[in-house]
Design goal:
Layout lengths: L1 H21 L3 H7 L42 H9 L1 H5 L8 H15 L12 H7 L9 E2 L1 H14 L10 E2 L5
Pfam families: DUF3035 (PF11233)
Protein name: DUF3035 domain-containing protein
Keywords: Signal
């Protein structure tokens, strides 16, 4: 009885779905199912205006009152800065700027503080527990010659090789 009800219901749904899709144009349906791509218009893609040319392509005249550039230093000063880097950090009067003085002062305060160990020293206890287990000590040292003889004898007699006592070295000579 359930099959007789399902067949007309499925046919009705199929027909109504067809009517719904017939109301759409072909382009809308194919675009909705991703069969047709909508390509962007190359003239509407950009959101900013193109770069503009400067009013003049001539370079400005040099300003003699401007601050001296780094490449304008004389060779004597360059040699002095190479030999003593502190000279490069100092101003013309031999002292550093206010910002440089504050920075060096803060660095000296930080270097004088005691290291609490929060940073700079990693906690290695977990790794040590994994790699270097504690306690137990070394096991017994196996006597190689006696073990070889035992294995040969067991194999010749057809015994299980894992049964029996393993001969070990004991005494001060270990």
């Amino acid at each position: 009885m359930a099959i007789s009800v399902l067949r007309p219901l499925s046919c009705a749904m199929l027909v109504s779905g067809g009517f719904l899709l017939s109301g759409c144009t072909g382009a809308d349906v194919s675009r909705a199912f991703g069969l047709e791509r909508s390509l962007p218009d190359e003239y509407t893609v950009t959101t900013r205006a193109p770069l503009s040319m400067p009013p003049s392509d001539e370079l400005g005249a040099p300003n003699s009152n401007a601050i001296q550039r780094a490449q304008d230093t004389n060779p004597r000063m360059q040699a002095l800065e190479t030999l003593s880097p502190n000279v490069a950090l100092q101003g013309a009067d031999g002292t550093g700027s206010a910002g440089q003085t504050a920075l060096v002062g803060e660095a000296q305060v930080a270097s004088n503080e005691e290291d609490k160990g929060e940073m700079g020293r990693a906690d290695t206890s977990f790794v040590d527990k994994l790699m270097f287990w504690h306690g137990g000590g070394a096991g017994n040292l196996v006597n190689g010659k006696a073990e070889n003889a035992r294995l040969r004898e067991d194999s010749a007699l057809g015994r299980n090789l894992t049964q029996g006592a393993t001969p070990t070295v004991s005494g001060p000579g270990k």
